[in-house]
Amino acid sequence: MIGRFGVALLASLLLSGGALADPAFEAFLPRFRAAVATGDAAGLADLTRLPFLYEGKPHDRAAFTRIMPVLFDAPVRRCLAAARPLVEDDAQVVFCPPLAFYFRKGDDGRYRLDEFAADGEDAP
């Protein structure tokens, strides 16, 4: 017989695709998805590690809010609303081919969007 801890552990493994779910990321992701869905550039900037590298250049908060509609276009917004994150090394990764979005914990223990990559060929 599996105790309550065993059931919770098994559920966590199943929901996370085999990796233990991180409660901090589970709390972060709905906020990030809501900011993307509503086009909340300021909210997204709060949830992103700045400066943010885009097209080979670091972008501060003001620059990030200007590029946000380009990076998070309609197909990416739809994908981010439903795509399941996967654990890859020290990151939680959401694949929206051809892009992969990497979320990592900072020194403060909070998750933020850390980077993205054109990684479509490696997408699951």
Taken as a percent bin, the fraction of beta residues is 15-25%
CATH architecture: Roll
* Uncertain stretches of 5 or more adjacent residues: 1-16
Using the CA coordinates, give the radius of gyration: 15 Å
> How many domains make up the 3D coordinates?
1
Mean pLDDT level: 85
Order of strands in the sheet with most strands: 3-4-5-6
Task: Return the string of H and E elements.
Answer: HHHEEHHEEEE
Q: How are the elements arranged and paired?
A:
Layout: H1 4-15, H2 23-38, H3 41-46, E1 52-54, E2 57-59, H4 61-71, H5 74-82, E3 86-88, E4 91-96, E5 99-105, E6 111-118
Antiparallel strand pairs: 1-2, 3-4, 4-5, 5-6
List its salient traits.
124 residues, Nuclear Transport Factor 2, Chain: A, 6 strands, alpha+beta, two-stranded antiparallel ribbon, disordered N terminus, single chain
